[in-house]
Amino acid sequence: MPHSHLFSAYPLEDYRAHAPTIDKAIKATLENGYYILGTEVAAFEREFAAYVGTKHAIGVGNGTDSIELLLRGLDIGHGHKVAVPSHTAVASASAIARAGATPVFLDIDPKTYTITPESLEKTILSPAGEGLKAVLAVHIYGHPADIPALQQICDQHEIILLEDCAQAHGATINGRQIGSLARGASFSFYPTKNLGAIGDGGGVTTDDDALAEKIRWLRQYGWKRRYISDYEGINSRLDELQAAILRVKLIALADSIRTRRKLAALYDSELAGLPLMTPQTRLGCEHAYHLYVIRLQRRDELMRHLISKGVPAALHYPAAVHEQPAYEHITRASNPLPETDSLYPEILSLPLHPHLSEDAILKTASLIREFFQS
Ligand SMILES: Cc1ncc(COP(=O)(O)O)c(C=O)c1O
Fold this sequence. Notes:
Blueprint: H1 10-17, H2 19-32, H3 39-52, E1 56-60, H4 63-73, E2 81-85, H5 90-98, E3 102-106, H6 117-124, E4 132-138, H7 147-157, E5 160-164, E6 172-173, E7 176-177, E8 184-188, E9 202-206, H8 209-218, E10 223-225, E11 228-229, H9 240-271, E12 285-286, E13 292-295, H10 299-308, H11 328-333, H12 338-343, E14 347-350, H13 358-373
Parallel strand pairs: 2-3, 2-4, 4-5, 5-8
Antiparallel strand pairs: 1-9, 6-7, 6-12, 8-9, 10-11, 13-14
Helix pairs in contact: 2-9, 3-9, 4-5, 4-8, 6-7, 9-13
The structure holds pyridoxal-5'-phosphate.
Residues 62-64, 88-89, 91-92, 138, 164, 166-167, 188, 190, 200, 202 line the site of pyridoxal-5'-phosphate.
């Protein structure tokens, strides 16, 4: 019997969980009459910076733009290379290209799926690393990249370290929130993210006053003063309505991440002993479980089994960025990525979000056990 009724969609459930307050916030914003870069964006920026623990947060149009604006704010563009994992959403690489720079792919750790210091060092010392200006470390699935180790290498080689936090709101390293650990960080508030708007949204966090100010200019036509562009900027502003919605959801974020961790722990214990790898957490880190991704050899068979029973198992992603046609030329200029290549046929994302019931987790786990017994 299909079990699809157990597996509600996160964006809608998250709206329903906060509907009265969100509706009120939307109405108040509509009545306020100030729809672009008004009081809601300013308040959200203050509150989000406080949550992350940085001096500044700048609201922008989406997560992809937040990476582009971060790079452009640091004058990283034509003639520069930016290292990035190939195991990420394509946006991490496409935003680097949009800024005018060239992405260079780094390989990952086979347990946490984040870029390794070894891969960075090897790239720096190889032709692929010539002209390397920055590293964009992605906190994939909600697990932090090893920022302290990467920072040491970046410092030795005068390379700027940046964080892509789109999948990891609420993850920490040694008790500090990701997004506060490097020179600057990008966030997405796409509806499925740990902190999701009801539409597009993104943000940059940093302690750097000059960088924050420049990104504020760049997100609005490069205006320092109204109507006068000192820089060639773009239009990428966080919307007032989305900011009002995000303010409501930010209050609930810590609780919702606690629930994600509780449900992930339930999966961990229910799947223990099976021939698959559950998500691993590096010492000193707290996982934010944006996704719960298992690794196993019989991935395709298990995925078919779960989907046939109404469980929405999914792939994040079906192909690494370096396997995608648009990025072939970059792949040729990067070093080989054996860990990324061997990971891709083996990953499977199981349903996880804070509005799922324990029953949904137990049902999924029991179908997985049944699969291995048959
Ligand atoms: C790791 C990563 N970086 C960047 C992005 C881009 O964010 P957005 O979709 O808001 O542009 C995403 C979202 O898909 C992501 O998962």
